[in-house]
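User: Could you check the structure of this?
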Amino acid sequence: MNSDVNTSSFARISLRTSAIVAGLGLLIMAILAPIASFGIFETLIVPGDATTTANNIVASAGSFRIGICFSLIVAILDIVAAWALYVLLKPVNKSLSLLAAWFRIVYAAILAFALSNLFIVLQLLNGEGYFKAFDIDQLYAQVMLFLNTFTDGWDLGLVIFGLHLLVLGYLAFKSDYNSKILGVLVIIAGLGYTIDSFGKIISPNYSVEISMYTFIGEVLLIFWLLWKGIKGFDKELDRNE
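Assistant: Sure, the predicted structure tokens are below.
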């Protein structure tokens, strides 16, 4: 009997801890990612204008580095969130939960690899040897090439991230301790990322950005995880004992 009590207590702690870890990780990512993407990179990078872009990055190299650091932190937190969500949803379906975790880990790896292009941009613009090896137009063209490679890599990664959300949403929908509506909204968010990413791969002129209108499931998931982590899973576990 004592063994059963200890096992039940451990299960409660595991679910609550994983929910809090996942919720906090996603919350920090939700803060850092927009700052890096919209607050830094998009203000410095001018599509089609290599000279202005290069001058912006040189003038704001510190901000550019902060954007890289924030993005790298996001990639690391993605791995942490993948683990926490796996622990949380493993009771629903271990195999699918593991698949969802691997999708997110692969996405994090792609993002981290794509960020290496931004380090190369800094080296090109800050290394005197590169100014001697290339004329200014060639150098700036190289800068734009690596910036575009970063963007393309991120878009490719978002395909995997969209698949992660599709599986995650299905698990949330099937679980006994989650909202069915939340599961559907997470699936919709996954579809938004997947459609946008494939759209950008298929057509260079794609600019619909469906994910800008379907992300609500991700936001609600953060608050649900934190609320559930604080409140606990007592009723759901008692029901399954």
